[in-house]
């Protein structure tokens, strides 16, 4: 799906917990996340710590969107 969107000229960040799969399917901007059932969080953390982690991941994804690339890149 990410390749199809990017073919239309829209930058995409593929947030995933298994980076090799993202590379195999051809995602260009890859953001490693926490875990399969909770990619942007960790229910075992206290709420403030989890909120901080989520914010950092979203900010990293936004920086990845703003980064010009010419090949696959893991952020």
Task: Kindly describe this structure.
- This protein is of the alpha/beta class and 75 residues long.
- 44% of the residues lie in helices and 13% in strands.
- A three-stranded parallel sheet has the order 1-2-3, with helices on both faces.
- Strand 2 (29-32), helix 3 and strand 3 (73-74) form a beta-alpha-beta unit.
- The longest helix is centred in the C-terminal third of the chain and has 20 residues, at 47-66.
Which keywords apply here?
three-stranded parallel beta sheet, single chain, alpha/beta, 75 residues, 3 strands, 3 helices
Shape: elongated
Rg for CA atoms: 13 Å
How far apart the termini lie comes to: 19 Å
- Multimeric state: single chain
Tally of contiguous helical segments: 3
**Looking across the biggest beta sheet, what order are the strands in?**
1-2-3
Helix and strand succession? Answer: HEHEHE
Question: How does the SSE layout of this entry go?
Answer:
Blueprint: H1 2-7, E1 13-16, H2 19-25, E2 29-32, H3 47-66, E3 73-74
Parallel strand pairs: 1-2, 2-3
Concise summary:
This protein is an alpha/beta fold. The protein has one domain. It has three helices and three strands, in the order αβαβαβ.
């Amino acid at each position: 799906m990410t390749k199809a969107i990017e073919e239309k000229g829209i930058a995409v960040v593929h947030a995933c917990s298994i980076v090799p799969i993202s590379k195999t399917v051809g995602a260009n901007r890859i953001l490693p996340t926490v875990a399969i059932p909770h990619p942007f969080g960790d229910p075992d953390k206290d709420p403030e710590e989890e909120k901080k982690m989520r914010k950092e991941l979203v900010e990293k994804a936004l920086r990845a969107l703003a980064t010009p690339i010419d090949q696959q890149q893991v952020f």
